[in-house]
Write a structure and sequence with these properties.
Strand content: under 5%
Number of strands: 2
CATH class of the domain at 53-126: Mainly Alpha
CATH architecture of the domain at 53-126: Orthogonal Bundle
CATH superfamily of the domain at 53-126: SWIB/MDM2 domain
């Protein structure tokens, strides 16, 4: 009778081991597929081409031109110059860094608001580009 119990135990243990091995193989296959996709993305090396709409030169309004200049610029450059102005003047809120405090030059651009979020800022600035 003891031999029957050990034989059953052996069969159960063998079954557990094989299922554990299968699970390990599956996890290994998932990992290798992920790493293959990452390597493929890196190997392509194709740089993203900028969207033509963002690169189109737009003329800033009179209020915005006091901050970024009056020459036509793409939206990306307007945003860069605006952020440079904000950093140079220290207009980012110290407690909540997502908020921008308006000075005399930025208040008309922000629609008279004293403080706007950085996400709202881009929306307001786009209204001043033609």
């Amino acid at each position: 009778m003891a031999a029957k119990k050990t034989a059953k135990r052996g069969a159960k243990k063998g079954a557990k081991k094989s299922s554990a091995k299968k699970g390990a193989k599956r996890a290994g296959a998932r990992k290798s597929a992920k790493s293959a996709r990452k390597k493929k993305a890196k190997k392509s090396g194709a740089k993203r081409t900028p969207n033509a709409a963002f690169m189109k030169a737009m003329t800033p309004s009179a209020q915005l031109s006091t901050v970024v200049g009056s020459s036509p610029l793409p939206r990306t450059e307007v945003t860069k110059k605006l952020w440079a102005y904000i950093k140079r003047k220290g207009l980012q809120d110290s407690k909540n860094r997502r908020n921008i405090n308006a000075d005399d030059n930025l208040k008309p651009v922000f629609g008279g608001k004293a403080q706007v979020s950085m996400f709202e800022m881009t929306k307001l600035v786009n209204k001043h580009l033609k």
